[in-house]
Amino acid sequence: MDPALLRVRGLRTHFASPEGVVRAVDGVDLVVREGQTLCVVGESGCGKSMTARSILQLVDPPGRIVDGEILFRLGAPAEPRAAAAEHGVVDLARLDPRGRAMRRIRGKEIAMIFQEPMVSLSPVHTIGHQIAENIRTHQDVSKKEARDRAIEELRRVGIPRPEHRVDAYTFQLSGGMRQRAMIAMALACRPKLLIADEPTTALDVTTQAQILELLQELQEQLGMAVMFITHDLGVVAEIADEVAVMYLGLVVEQCGVDELFHDPRHPYTKALLESVPTAGPRAKQRLTTITGSVPHPYHRPKGCPFHTRCRQAIPGECDHKLPPVLATGTADHPGSRAVRCLLYQTPADVAAGVDTLGEVSR
Amino acid sequence: MNDPVSDPASDPVRDPDRDEEIYVAPQYKLVWWRFRRNRLAVAGLVVLGFLYLLAAFCEFWAPHTQDHYRAVYSYAPPQRIHVSFDGGVHFFVYGYKSRPDPETLLRTFTVDRSTRVPLRFFPRGETYQLWGLFGTDRHFFGPVKPGDPMYLFGADEQGRDLFSRLIYGSRISMSVGLVGVFLSLALGVLLGGISGYLGGITDNLIQRFIEFFMSIPTLPLWLGLAAAIPSGWGPITSYFAITIILSLMGWTGLARVVRSRFFQIRSEDYVLAAELDGVRRMRIIRRHMLPAFTSHVIASLTLSIPGMILGETALSFLGLGLQPPVVSWGVLLNDAQNVRVLSTAPWLLLSGAAVVVAVMALNFVGDGLRDAADPYES
Amino acid sequence: MTTVNADRSHTDAPSGAASADVLLRIRNLSMRFQLSSGFLGLTGRTSFHAVREVNLSIRRGETLGLVGESGCGKTTLGRCVLRAYKPTHGELAYRREDGTVVDLARLGRGELRPYRREIRTVFQDPNSSLNPRMTLLQIVGEPLLVNDLARGAELRDRVAEVLRLVGLRPEYMRRYPHAFSGGERQRIGIARALVTRPRLVVADEAVSALDVSVRSQILNLLEDLQEQLGLTYLFVSHDLSVIRHLCDRVAVMYLGRIVEEGATDDLFTRPRHPYTESLLRALPLPDPRLRSTKKRVPLRGEVPDPASPPPGCTFHPRCPYAQGRCATDEPALIPLGRSAAARCHYADSLQLAGVTDS
Amino acid sequence: MGLYLLRRVLAMVPTVFLVSLVSFTIIQLPPGDFLDTVVANLSQQGQTIEPAQLAALRQRYALDQPMVVQYTTWITNIVTRGDFGQSMLYGKPVSELIGERLPLTLGLGVSVWLFGWAIALPAGIYSAVRKYSLGDYVLTSMAFVGIAVPGFLLALTVAFIQFRYFDKAVGGMFSPEYADAAWNLGKLLDFLDHLWLPVLVLSLGGIGGTIRVLRANLLDELRKPYVVTARSRGLSERRLLVAYPVRVALNPFIATVGWLIPALFDGEVLVSTVLGLETTGPLLLRSLESQDMYLAGSIIFIACVLTVIGTLISDILLVLVDPRVRAGYA
Q: Residue A236's pLDDT is what?
């Protein structure tokens, strides 16, 4: 139904340092479907930002993509580069990070927005200049035209008096307006995929609501897919179609948003959901916690990375074997889900929600 | 975005056995561990240690005293040390044959392979008072017979041994930087601290004053002040006068460093936390603020020593700084002002090489310290 | 030292509780900051009220939540209570163990020292609030040492005790903060707050910098400690879900003023101030099935510059229910029921939506 | 902007006043007034000076008046008549002596600045962008050497090498045969032939410093998130580098254009002395050696004033290039 726009398989991004190798991303599999929103959720240090950056080959040295494929389906068949790739699909991991092919995808096919617009935008250029530059990088238009387009884009993201604000510098705007400007910039070339790296984390709740609303509106208008990175399960519940849960460089579960909140499979997902205080009916009751904290990347546990904190860990199994991905249905099918956990032995277990201990989850 | 993963170098953890050692390591250890990883800085530190050791015991290291001269060896060229192995290990240099040039009246020297000047460790030579405490005539290295010519770096016009004079010169040249830097530090910490602590209009005034100082060309002013030093002053007085002049110009940078660090640390949460603990002001400064900027200040100090050394060298080279009979590298270079003299005795430039080595070593160490100064920031 | 009459009644404060219950009564508290600019700081001098005429009571043993967007003055209010700032105006009537009441707002540096160990704080950022150059023992033991509460072996014992209390191993007290993870560091911060056996703890965004899984541990810890030690919390946060989980009562701040105050459940299910409603509505709920039930009208505009607040009700430019008089008349804090109040002309008549309970 | 300019120019007044005080103090430092020195010098050479002439000079420079009056007279003479006093060493007005030499000093300064930046800026950028490459190591070590080798030592070494191995005397800006000749192609070439050495020697230290600072600044900028953002929009590396981080990293240099002038005076005194250039540096040195204090003080005063003007230019440039600074004064 909704075919995959981006499919990441076995992605590994490692950082080599004199102290050893940090495996920031270590075998990530995920799928973003056309026109849909995939939320990537996880705690700090789980590699979600690095996964996002790896997709656009924006990892700074000493970081390096060491393995895996990032398959992206290119837009119009007329695209000259697409001819080279089979069925219009390119493996972004194999492109030269500085090459022309990669640059044509950045900003045009896949755009990215970041957490802190103040530092993510140039301090010495006006926002109009930066938007116009983006347009002119990918399209052959005059300066005047690019500027008019920039004003249009600013209006679209709800910045008041855009013909005036187009000449503003980032430090002259409020946090919410900056984030809007960054969105305008990212969407100026109508990308098919927007990667949003914690775009609302630094904002107040009311501003966050405005930005989320805006993103959803624009997504509907422009028909793009969104990969939204966040640590806030509330935000996930608001906007996601599908969710990928990450832990220590691995996607441990990917499924539809409703299944995630109401029928989770992975013990980490379950524990995460239980540990969130809800604004719902209140009782001064203890929260369920996950013991310990996320291990330091230098001390990555063997086997399933979560086994050290997992209530259902099987001694002798989980601390040895890295669980394989068990997927139900085909990855292109909505309603399909994928889990990495030894409690499930077959895809059928995953579908049924029965783990090998015979316990029916929730 | 706050992935600790993004900067793996920030964490020195390697093998778990060392973890506990790192966990309980105080700041100076962490700084040292970080410093140690910078090879250039470590090399600089070794050279620096060597130079200061040389300066501290120069009478012992130098084969001759600084004023020991023999006019017959005027502009005698450097000798090479040879080793012979007949009946044990012996070091020696060849003697000179010389004859006056009829045109220039300067002596020209050739190596005389027939005479050997035997050398040894710990020979007896001229007596000296080490640090004014005790007298001895033992030197580290020198000719077996005190009167024999040994000019490893050549001789100057009066036949004085440049090698010995360089070693003696290191005492003044290397200490000018240290003393000057401490004077600068006193001024800088005082004014920078006042500026940072009081803030407001006081801060503003001190800042304008510092800007004014920084906008004055240093060397002309040094020259002006140095020229005003009465020539009748003794060597020690003029040494301190020169040092004060040098430090007058160097304190502004330090004051700025101190002030900005002060502001930065004062706004740290842990300082507020200490205030809310009921810690008294003096204790906050002593226990919480000073330790946080000592390492930075030491790094800045190290980096400002070279400026002082170069300043002294420049002044003395021009004849406005220290005057003979005081020996410093600058004073020695003063002999090398004339290109014609240089073409006769190019080895006179060796004192310049000493300056370069010292300055580079200090820069390496300072850079290394600066990079290692804050082991907690990633 | 100023002593406030203990049984003075405060009719304008909405707390209906007997005043013996009240640990700290904040009356008409204002905090104004000076901003200077220009050459030598002489040319321009502006000031703004970060906190304006706040009245609030904190009762013994309760958790009072203080919520609002960034820049609303909640942190400043917390720091006034801690006397990190000297309030420009108003009273901080603090009831001591023996029943006497002291106005903390008027005390000087030296006079404050005895109260520093009774009113403690937990900081937001466990990385910057712990001196990286001091060991756990030095950090946690410092308040004991400087207040002459303990030294030597006794100090060590008390530090060990409080470390155990917050779930850290006392063997670690020779370690430096860099040896600990974020959650553990926050525990150290809590240990430092508790080591003097305080009565009131001001927690300023104490769990905001933490990861979800660690945050729940710390929230549980704070609750357990309150029960064990009979602590009173002033919990400052922008996170409504944490506030709802932890707090008994909530005060909502906007542009330096309290705009609404009430018992947590009441305030969440039936807000009385339009701003509270907007906050609640903006809060993302962790259940995708609630998506359709929410009205999707985000709050318009942005928080105005506190240096030049709008006339009348400061919220009126963004308020969906604003009427003519809102732009001119400043509403008073209207008491609503037993311990609630809202600063809105129409607090009685508006039917505002709270959080729908699933 | 206009207001800002006005404020900055006004702020210069106290600085210039302070600088003049310092210079005047230097003039006054040696014991006795300068006429005493003149008389002493002349009598050493067996000459005398007319008492009437002496009295006239004394009155002109208010030497018999209190210090305040002397200072006022000195500064008034400078401001109103451009009269910096009399050099007793050369027996000429100071203004004339400085007027002869200042153009060459400033010309040398501009050449040093242009040459230095032409070398150092590309080198610094290269060094930062290709961090830890062979080129970076080579440039960084050269920068270290450049900082550590004092200019005069380098000048001395080069002069020695030229004298010893190329049999070429170094000194002056012209060969003897062109010294008094009118300007023609030959003289120009001869001038350039003499110019390269001082320019090279004088710029070396600055080049080293610039490379190191620019490299550090640029490395800081390259780490900033806005670079990643720009890259994520598909900009080519070269455009991205020039349009964003380099521009920001260069700002501190623009801010310090003004400091180049004192730096020039610092380096120039020694190098010109060694190389025998007819600039203000050796003049200052000679005047100091012979205690010709009006000349010395005036040179220091002019150097300081030029520095203040340079700082002003820097500030204006910085406002022009950096919108953040501009907004602060808008």
A: 92
CA D256, CA D317: separation in Å to the nearest integer?
Answer: 10
In which band, very low, low, confident or very high, does the pLDDT at C16 lie, cut at 50, 70 and 90? very low
Whether D1 has a pLDDT exceeding 90, the answer reads no
What is the distance of C-alpha D174 from the center of its chain?
A: 22
Could you give the CA distance from residue A251 to residue A268 in angstroms, rounded to a whole number? 11
With respect to residue D310, please indicate whether it lies within any of the assigned structural domains.
yes
| pLDDT value at residue B292 | 81
Residue D159 · residue D233 · CB < 8 Å = no
Minimum-distance CB partner of D159 among B220, B339, B356: B339
Q: B8, A197: Cβ pair inside 8 Å?
A: no
Distances (CA, A) of D174 to B55, D104, D115, D189, D284: 44, 12, 21, 10, 21
* CATH (domain of C141): 3.40.50.300
Per-residue model confidence as pLDDT tens digits over C332-348: 888 887 778 999 998 88
Q: Nearest Cβ partner of A119 from D224, D321, D323? A: D224
Split into its structural domains, chain A has a count of 1
Question: What sign does the CA torsion over D160, D163, D164, D165 have?
Answer: positive
Respond yes or no on whether ipTM tops 0.85.
no
Residue C199 lies in a domain: yes
Cβ pair B223:D285 closer than 8 A: yes
**Does residue C272 belong to any structural domain of this protein?**
no
Residue of C nearest to A235 (CA): C284
CA C165, chain centre distance (Å): 23
Number of domains in chain D: 2
H helix or E strand, kind and range, residue B276: helix B269-276
Residue D169 vs residue C274, higher pLDDT: C274
A183 in reach of chain D (CB within 8 A):
no
Q: How confident is the model at residue A246 (pLDDT cuts 50, 70, 90)?
A: very high
* Domain span including residue D257: 94-328
CATH C-level class of B168-373? mainly alpha
Residue of B204, B268, B280 with shortest CB distance to C41: B204
Question: Is residue C41's pLDDT more than 50?
Answer: no
C-beta of residue C186 within 8 angstroms of C-beta of residue C204 = no
Do D56 and D149 share a domain, yes or no?
Answer: no
A207, A238, A290 member nearest C213 (Cβ) = A290
Taking 80 as the threshold, does the pLDDT of residue D330 lie above it? no
- Interface contacts (B, C; CB < 8 Å): 76
User: Would you say residue C158 lies in a domain?
Assistant: yes
- Boundaries of every domain in chain B: 79-150, 168-373
Q: What six digits make up the tokens of C122?
A: 């937990």
Eight-class DSSP state of A335: T
What is residue B9's predicted lDDT score, i.e. its pLDDT?
Answer: 37
Q: Does A76 touch chain D (CB under 8 A)?
A: no
One domain for residues D204 and D154: yes
Residue D273 sits in a domain whose CATH number is 1.10.3720.10
C-facing residues of B in 200-259 (CB < 8 A) are 200-201, 204-205
pTM for the complete prediction? 0.82
End-to-end C-alpha distance for chain A, whole angstroms = 29
Which residue of chain B comes nearest to C137, CA vs CA? B24
The answer to whether C176 contacts chain B (CB < 8 Å) is yes
Contact D297 B224 (CB under 8 A): yes
Q: Which residue of D has its CA nearest to A172?
A: D327
Distance from CA of C133 to the nearest CA of B (A): 6
User: Which D residues 199-238 touch A at CB under 8 Å?
Assistant: 223-226, 228-237
Residue D98 Cα distances to B58, B361, C26, C56, D101, angstroms: 45, 40, 73, 75, 5
B32 Cβ contact partners less than 8 Å away, ≥ 6 residues apart: B372
Show the domain range for C192.
Answer: 119-247
Q: Give me the number of domains chain C comprises.
A: 1
In a domain, A319, yes or no: yes
Q: Which residues of chain B does C120 touch, with a Cβ-Cβ cutoff of 8 Å?
A: 276
Radius of gyration of chain D (CA): 24
